[in-house]
Design a protein that fits this description.
Number of helices: 4
Strand content: 25-35%
Order of helices and strands: HEEHEEHEEH
Radius of gyration: 21 Å
Low-confidence stretches: none
Distance between the termini: 73 Å
Oligomer: single chain
Shape: elongated
Largest sheet: 4 strands, mixed
Strand order of the largest sheet: 2-4-5-6
Length: 178
């Protein structure tokens, strides 16, 4: 009987989400010979952190941002993007119980994402540093499929890194203009 029932199960069709890139944006041209991306953030790979479950984890998105947005156009010096945080934390939300709750779909999880990074630019006779951070959150309904949940995570990560991009661009123009 269990073999017959198991054979009737329809496998979930996993959706293909696009690659998260920032190549459509103009790069920041830095007067340095090379760019390094350093991650000081180490995902814990356990609850309440869930970034390792994301189709595009925030850390991967930040590295892609650096690859697409930062360009070395100088003859000497180094720019270092130091990623200090790229987390996604899941929190269980309180749900109502009782007859009314039986007939409503409730938000059961909240996802809080945070990215923080520091850009250090060093070349002979010049040094500058700026930082940027961004946070975003979303909640998910109790009946969300894995595909719906992954799409929410993807959209949340994309919006998060776009917020980071705007903050970093503003700070770079203000503090690293030269």
């Amino acid at each position: 009987l269990s073999l017959g029932l198991g054979g009737c199960e329809t496998p979930v069709q996993r959706q293909r989400l696009p690659e998260l890139t920032f190549a459509h944006l103009s790069p920041f041209k830095l007067d340095v010979a090379r760019i390094e991306v350093i991650s000081l953030y180490r995902p814990p790979l356990k609850a309440p952190n869930v970034e390792h479950l994301f189709p595009t984890p925030p850390l991967k998105a930040m590295k892609q941002w650096a690859k697409d947005r930062l360009r070395a156009v100088g003859r000497s010096g180094t720019a270092k993007l130091i990623i200090t945080r790229a987390s996604a934390v899941e929190t269980a939300l309180a749900v109502q119980t009782g007859l009314k709750a039986t007939f409503t779909k409730q938000q059961t999880q909240r996802y809080d994402l945070t990215v923080e990074a520091r850009l250090e630019v060093s070349s002979p006779g010049r040094h500058g540093t700026t930082t940027a951070h961004a946070t975003r959150f979303s909640t998910v309904r109790e009946d969300a499929s894995i595909n719906a949940r992954e799409k929410i995570w993807f959209d949340l990560t994309e919006a998060l890194v776009n917020d980071f991009d705007k903050a970093m661009e503003k700070n770079m123009r203000q503090y690293l203009g030269a």
